[in-house]
């Protein structure tokens, strides 16, 4: 059996090298090139995108030849040979979808529908998601749920490899690590048919890589990335069955082994959903793009992601002989590592999600401050003089972490109405009266704008549309994000404060009917 695996691998490697060179040279000779057509394409010159043809042809030839050799040598594979056609047929459909898209164009919707057809064929051939692990035992899915989950898995992984195919050698190299993991799991479970297909695929990818590493002379194209993703999704299902898919390990191994494309695709869906973009629209914010923006070179990014793929492959192999508690610990550590890595990439959408979570934890503090706003506005509604109004403003500012406020009153206010304010700085100029409150040591005397921070200014207009002046609230930049509900703070505050100031102003001209032009008398 080991000899058969070795022959399959070496044959696949040699044939792939020949086929890949022939495909590349034919593409250049016939002008089958694809120039960069959008900003998310990294390359700057026209490169053929038909590398998938060489990989598919290699796998097809080697598997057929090796099947005949196995029969001639009377080698009985663990899985009946009748499963070869059910694997190759739907994978060939995925491959042809990619070829058409490489040479012409197919819309994202049609491509997705055809991928669902291919995944349905794989489901009919017996490649299915059947179980989900629970705390106690496992749950077996019905036919409908099993079909939907299988299609979701196959289509998701297929497109995941298509999405990470953005740098020279990235998708093919990542696939090679995942294939290696599938091979080891299959051999350990005596699933030799799956391991045999895996080594044929590994040799084909390895023979293609010399032409695809930076600077690439041949790209995988959709034909290659869709074929690799489809094959890996099926082989991962087949290989994990040796780990008794009803166990946590049987579910975790393929997910962890294919962790990089799964993570990148999940982030892409999340980012586009949060930012309101189409889920099918291409962008320049995949993991490899973010690493390039952080200053890493093309080759450095590929090597970093190779390392991530290798680490995930090794972690998935450790799950084979682990019990439930150890698996949970590994998955927890993996989750923490992924969280730290994603945060380091500084996606705006992820940072906003973290900020939303932080605001949830801060909700109690926000409620305390909103209660202070309610109490202050209620006190303003009951106030009869400026001293009471100022007291309510000071309480509001202290509870909401404002460092100072400036109350600018219209010149119509009587000097007797604002005489001797408590704890305030008072001055008068051509625009009216100015009262300033500050925390100890906040304002720098002699400077007109002493704050390095932000300023919120409210126009004070009464319910009768009388202009009483303005209120400016100040907050220092001190490294601490203000936890203030500005919408709630400003809602109704300006009108309540203006009405309170209007009552405090003396003397007043009072008419028998309210007038919008009524003014404060000085």
Can you give keywords for this protein?
alpha+beta; Beta-Lactamase; five-stranded antiparallel β-sheet; 7 strands; 522 residues; disordered C terminus; 18 helices
H/E order of the elements?
HHHHEEHHHHHHHHHHHHEEEEEHH
Total strands: 7
Low-confidence stretches: 444-449, 507-522
Tally of DSSP helical segments: 18
- Helix content bin: 55-70%
Total tally of structural domains = 2
CA distance, first residue to last residue: 104 Å
Shape designation: elongated
Largest sheet strand order: 4-5-3-7-6
Average pLDDT over all residues: 81
- The percent range for strand residues is 5-15%
Largest beta-sheet characterization: 5 strands, antiparallel
Q: Find the structural class using helix and strand composition.
A: alpha+beta
Radius of gyration: 34 Å
How would you portray this structure in words?
- The protein contains 18 helices and seven strands.
- With 522 residues, the protein is of the alpha+beta class.
- It is 59% helix and 8% strand.
- Helix 5 crosses helix 8 (221-240) and helix 7 packs antiparallel against helix 8 (221-240).
- It has helices at 2-30, 51-72, 84-103, 108-124, 143-163, 170-188, 192-208, 221-240, 248-257, 259-274, 287-293, 298-318, 324-345, 348-361, 363-382, 386-399, 486-490, 493-504, and strands at residues 131-133, 138-140, 404-409, 425-429, 432-438, 453-461, 467-476.
- It has two domains: 2-357, no CATH class; 367-504, GAF domain (Beta-Lactamase).
- The strands form two sheets. Strands 4-5-3-7-6 form a five-stranded antiparallel sheet. A two-stranded antiparallel sheet has the order 1-2.
- The longest helix is centred in the first third of the chain and has 29 residues, at 2-30.
